[in-house]
Structure formats: C-alpha cells, structure tokens
Amino acid sequence: MGPALCLVSAACFGALAIFGKFAYDAGVSPGALLLVRFVLAAALLWLVLLLRPELRGGASSRRAVGTALGLGAIGYAAQASLFFAALRLMDASLLSLILYTFPVLVTVAAVLLGRDRLTPRRGAALVAASTGTLLVLLGTGSVSFHPLGALLGFGSAVVYTVYILVADTVVHSMPPVLLSALVMTGAAGTLAANAMLNGGVGLSFAQVGWLWLGCIAVVSTVAAMLTFFAGLQRTGPSTAAILSTFEPVVTTALAAVLLGESLTPVQLTGAALVLASAVVLQTAARREPAVLPVAATVAD
Fold first, then answer.
1. Best label site of 23, 198, 209, 216, fewest CB within 10 Å?
2. Is the CB of residue 239 less than 8 Å from the CB of residue 5?
3. How far is Cα 74 from Cα 69, in angstroms, rounded to an integer?
4. Residues contacting 272, CB < 8 A, separation 6+
C-alpha cells in the first residue's frame, strides 16, 4: 500500500495547480489562497480528531509535537513562499522542473545519512522518474529563464528536501492525522502572522472562489498530506520522493483535459517513464527487504 498511497498523494497535490488556476480566475489572491488553504485544512483535521479521538493515538512527546509544528511553521510555509515568489519571476513549467530536483536530493541525502539504500531497482526508478519529469516539463515548449527565480525555485526544492527528511523522523511516532493537523496548524500560524504584518489579505472575491479553495484544502492539502505521511511511513523517504514525481504528470494531464492544453509526444513519453518508475517501485516494495530504520528517532 505504501507506493499506492504516495501516488494518491502525488495526484492530489498535482490537482493543486488546476484548482489554483480556477481560484485565481475567481479573483482569489495568492496570499488569500495560501492562508485560507492552511487555516481551513487545519480546522478540518482538528474536527476529524475531535470526532474520532482514537485517531490521535497514544501520547506524543513534546519534542515530536514541536517538530511537527515546526515542519509547518518553517518548512511548509517557507517552501510555499519561495515557490510562489519564484513563480512571479519565471514560467511555471521551468519552475516545476527546478522544484522536482528534490527527489534526487532526498534520495542522495537519505543514502548519505544511512536512512535508506540505493538499490539497483530504486536507482533505476530514480533515473526513469527524473528523466520522465524532464521530458514532461520541457515538452511544454519555450521557457524563460530568470536567475533569481531559478535560485528561489531551487531553494524551494532544498527546503522540501529537508522537510521530507525531518518528517521521516516523526512520521513513525504519531498517527498521520495528528501529524498532518500539527503541520497545517504550524503553517497556518506563520501565514496568519505574515498576513497581519502586511495588512491582511483580501477576501472579496467571487463566491465560486470558495469552492476552489475548498477543493484545495480538502483534496490538495488534507487528503494529499494524509496519504503522503501514510505512504512515507511505509516506504521510506527516497521511495516517497521518487513517487512524488508523478505530481507534475498529473498536473499536465489535468491541464490538457480541463484547460484545453495539448500533450506532445515528448510529454507522453515522459509520462510513460514516470508511470514505469512507479510500477518498478511497487514491485520492489514486495521483493526487497524493508528499508533501513531512521537514524535519528524522536525520544521523549
């Protein structure tokens, strides 16, 4: 189930750009989108925990809770801020390509830290997924390059790499729902503080904007986060990161169906490579021994 959960998470995250496009068309600003996304997601997750207290699991250590809040307040908030700052300076396709250097970064870092093994299957899947993502994104045509935008985009990839590696140290110590709620709360707190310091965010947009914000919060945040943590718990950081390369493929396919954008033969080839890497990893999950335990666990 681990690889399947990671793929579901990638698909949910992949729909984010489509929902965001519709939200922007309804007059939602980027600041309002991010703030409402995380506040609504946090509220939904805490409501679930209130109604289903058994999902909280046993008592979590203060260090684990603090780490989870920090993942949202620092990691998730910083990654989103860097990404959207870069998006103002450069084309989305090239920015996505730069962001999706993170699977390579996560895999290399996990191996160097002794948290994972770079088996032949996993290495082949990494190459296939990275090549497929490259073909999908470069197949969109000409792109503009902006040095500062590229730096911000790579910074977003580095932050997300650290986020995944840190999340791997707490994902085994608390249930996915509680962990997701804490992460969303941390991110919402940072974005709310930023909004207050900058005079707030505008919420005077068309009513349909709330529909798309709801889709972003429920599908591309709550569902995406829960399935990602559940998949990470079962597969380890490198496999989860490699399977996350399915996300831009989903985005491109949805854009073709819903926004009238056409897929080129190069993009179709790239999508096939990413899907093939997912199949390889699903097979490997059944045949290979379990991944090495996380080097640094969270203690009470």
1. 198
2. no
3. 8
4. 132
Question: Which positions ≥6 away from 92 have C-beta within 8 Å?
Answer: 17
Residue 232 makes CB contacts below 8 A (sequence gap 6+) with 6, 164, 167, 168, 171, 240
Tokens of 72: 């949202």
Q: How many residues does the chain have?
A: 300
- Please write the tens of the pLDDT for every residue from 102-145: 777 887 788 888 877 778 877 887 788 778 777 876 776 655 56
Instruction: In whole angstroms, give the CA distance from residue 133 to residue 272.
Output: 10
Give the pair of three-digit tokens for residue 65.
């809770």
- Distance, in Å, from the CA atom of 162 to the CA atom of 154, rounded to the nearest integer, reads 13
| Percentage of the chain exceeding pLDDT 70 | 86
Which residue type, as a one-letter code, is found at position 141? Answer: G
Distance, CA of 154 to CA of 60 (rounded, Å): 34
Other CB atoms within 10 Å distance of the CB of residue 204: 8
